[in-house]
């Protein structure tokens, strides 16, 4: 159902006068769900899973020893209640086992663990491993059927006996969690335009949710819900609205290659039945001549009704983005002092903390340096801009134990000179010439931040950018890793490094901790050698435990 045009005009007029409130905008809107033309295409065949766990109840009352999603829980706080490994004994960690999937390239998976079984991905392969020994249980290899413009994958969703993952040619797969057998394959969109699915899906209430990446190639992004059993398409939310959809008036007609990627995973608020989606930059990335306005719903957190895809609320971090400052990382949900909060780290160099009920900004904390960040870009001369477009990957984590947020970032500035945007199907669509800092000038930050006030409690400067996820635990330890290949265990309250181990390859994915037969383990994805970072290494899962 669409907004009546007269009502939309009232919204546009109010927005032009600067009088529109968030509540007023949403009051003007109905569902922004659409059918996205002929896409997605249904699965050619459907088979049933061998098992039926984890269930909704398993997610809502997760066992401490499981790591059920990319970010462990629906709230995406990456916090583990395990405490066998703690600040008193973390220095005694040792390698328990190692698994190499035989892959060179992007390796940004976050191991998902349930019932002692671990699931990890490379660009084309999915593996199930014994989580205590790294012994392979099964593997599945996907062969692309369409063009690939960016190759990589960040992990899986596990639900109802199935393992869900995306592909670099924009398919969504369901595999049998017990055997690895393909159950169904939905072709979500046409990868010849640059569409891909890199983020880890999430699944709940009989549905699996995902979105597309590819804004760098001039795609227009969507968020989808599919039936978890059959792959049947349930709803689509258009990140780039058109026609009478709310937000279409913020584009000035420039939606054709409007961007709006979803690069990472998503959070779920099961109580309010909302899917919280981080959305990426508009297109072209560094030139806004064709898209005057705020360009909703890019660079935002959008909250969608789980059943219908209807927009419930949104907050936009960077209106009218011209520096490729995606909101790329999953938002983190938490409660502190009785107040519900949403924290999101943005590539514009700030950590935003919002009141989850009012959407008011509680804090805006600088997490990267800023240089020429508010200077208009030019066709006539190059301008050095900090932060650059690749400053943040895995977002914030939250520890209720220490009432802190943790976030790692990359200091990688860019020199940008605009040129005339020229769209060619499947080609990079920047509208500028962009040159990033060389590797020797790049470094990273790891910060501990007060979750109530946004004030920084401590900071560590790292020799290389920090792309890995941060994982706090009830033992007072924070686990993470560096592009130099070091796995780190850190004291949450002080930032003191308790343990370090050289894994041999860059760490850019998640760090998961879990228990098997009562013993705590930590799994690290090492060996990321993706584009732009000057890193090397063979993809490796390294699992640590206490002796």
Plain-language structure description:
Mean pLDDT is about 90; it is low at about 1-35. A hairpin with a 2-residue loop joins strand 10 and strand 11. The longest helix has 12 residues, at about 5-15. This protein has helices at about 5-15, 20-25, 55-60; strands spanning about 95-100, 110-115, 115-120, 125-130, 135-140, 155-160, 160-165, 170-175, 180-185, 200-205, 205-210, 220-225, 235-240, 265-270, 275-280, 300-305, 310-315, 330-335, 340-345, 350-355, 360-365, 385, 395-400, 405-410, 415-420, 430-435, 445-450, 455-460, 470, 475-480, 485-490, 495-500, 505-515, 520-525, 540-545. By secondary structure, it is mainly β. A four-stranded antiparallel beta sheet has the order 1-35-34-33, with no helix packed on it. It has a four-stranded antiparallel beta sheet with strand order 2-3-4-5, with no helix packed on it. The termini are far apart.
State the main characteristics.
single chain; 547 residues; mainly beta; 4-stranded antiparallel sheet; 3 helices; 35 strands; globular; disordered N terminus
